[in-house]
Every structure is written in C-alpha cells, then in structure tokens.
Specification:
The protein has three helices and ten strands, in the order E-E-E-E-H-H-E-H-E-E-E-E-E. The chain has helices at residues 67-87, 99-113, 137-150; strands at residues 8-9, 14-17, 30-39, 53-62, 125-132, 154-156, 164-184, 196-216, 227-240, 243-248. The radius of gyration is 34 Å and the shape is elongated.
Length: 254
C-alpha cells in the first residue's frame, strides 16, 4: 500500500515520495501510477538517510494506457544507472609509506651518515647503540652501520667484543609536506564533480638529523667530541592546468 503523504510507511519501513498532490487535474485524462524500488547508498538527504529503501512514484498524463509503462521503464533505467554510477568506487591499495617517501627518507639518512667524521675506522671493532622517538631509529642504525663498514670498521653485536661504542641519537627522521592549491575543489553530490586544479604545488621534504658519539668500551670515556650530522631531500610536484611537472634531488625520482 502506498501512502499519499510523504512519510514513512509502516508496512515497508521506507520513505515514500508521492506526486498525487502535485499532479495536474484533467477531467478526461487517465493516469497510471507505477512504483519501483532502488537501493541507494549515497542518496540525497532531501529524500532519505543513506542506506534506506526509496520508492519513487512516477506520474504521467497519458492517452494511451501503455504510454505510462514505457515512461516508468525509462525512468527506472536512468535512475538505476545513476545510483550505481554514483555509488561505485574503486580504491587502489596503498602501503603505509609511498615509494617516494621511502626513497626520500632513506636517501636523507644516507646523506647524514656520510657526514660522520672521526678517527680511522679501518679494522676497529664497533658496537652501535641507537635511540630515537620512532621505530625509524632502527633504520638509521643500519644506515650508519653500512657507512662505517664501508670505511673498514668491524660492526659487532656484543659490546664485550668492541673497542669502541658508537651512540647514535636520532633527533629527526621524517618528512614535512606543504600543499598549495588554487582551483575548484571536488564536490560529492548526486552528480560528483572532480577537483579542477588551475595551479597546485605539492612539496615533500625529508630530513635526517643524527647525533654521533664515540665512547671507549673499556674506560667509558668519550673519544673525541659529539657531532651532529644532517641530510635533506626534496620532492616537488607542480600542476599548471593542464600540465603537471615533477622534480627531485633524489636519483630515480620522479
């Protein structure tokens, strides 16, 4: 049973939209009433909340009894296609960190490690200790270990086998991003409108700052002075309608 008032029908548990109050009055005309139900995931809130069953009632003045059936069929096909087009969305999977961000961070860490200065490490057994605010400290430790081994040092896993202990304090290892946008933002509606960028700039800067201290494993005294080393990388994407440009100081990007 279809309710004449725009309210919830207790039998169907759905909201109905009735056109009986706005149909034109023609004494000699015939009207047919055809209803159909469509599942709308993201329908306009003017009709109902998201997820409800919506019944649309189509009225059309007819002289031929078959005319209204054709009208409702065309309307059902159009609205069903529109609803499915608006609700269908495919999202590509993403890793916690993009490949671009990983390359920026790893290169920044390598650049900071290459700035470490100290005595001749050739043949010296070294034990590395690391501390940082994030889990990235472990990666910084391995980056420094690779650099010291490239200089001839022997990195050991037990402090009792080392003549020097290297303490690495990861002060920073992360990225900062800035966004500049001028244009029309995306709008989600019955007919979605994509973002239109007239001018845009995305800039991502990776920084690695390490504090490097060497200690005599037997006496516990500091060997030389503590030093801070820093590495930096940058990636920029600029959009000027209808062109896009990318550049970076990291080999392989973009």
């Amino acid at each position: 049973m279809i309710s004449d008032n725009p309210q919830y029908d207790t039998n169907m548990g759905s909201r109905f939209v009735s056109a009986s109050n706005v149909s034109p009055s023609y004494p000699n005309a015939h009207y047919s009433q055809t209803s159909f139900e469509v599942k709308v995931n993201q329908a306009s809130k003017l009709l109902t909340d998201s997820g409800d069953r919506v019944r649309l009632v189509a009225w059309r003045h007819q002289r031929d009894p078959h005319e209204a059936i054709g009208c409702s069929g065309e309307l059902a096909f159009f609205l069903t296609g529109l609803a499915s087009g608006c609700s269908a969305k495919r999202t590509l999977t993403q890793t916690p960190r993009s490949a671009t961000e990983q390359l920026l961070l790893s290169t920044a860490a390598e650049r900071s490690a290459t700035q470490i200065q100290g005595p001749d490490f050739l043949g010296v057994p070294l034990y590395l200790e690391v501390a940082g605010l994030t889990n990235d400290a472990a990666f910084a430790k391995e980056t420094v270990a690779n650099e010291l081994q490239a200089r001839g040092a022997i990195v050991v896993t037990e402090v009792t086998k080392a003549t020097r202990t290297v303490k690495i304090l990861v002060q920073a290892l992360g990225t900062d991003q800035t966004e500049t946008f001028f244009g029309i933002p995306a709008m989600n509606s019955i007919i979605p409108i994509p973002e239109i960028t007239l001018f845009g700039r995305h800039r991502q800067i990776a920084r690695s700052r390490l504090q490097f201290t060497m200690i005599d494993s037997r006496t516990g005294q500091t060997v030389g002075q503590a030093q801070e080393v820093e590495g930096r990388t940058v990636f920029t994407r600029m959009t000027i309608l209808p062109f896009a440009f990318e550049w970076s100081d990291v080999v392989g990007l973009p």
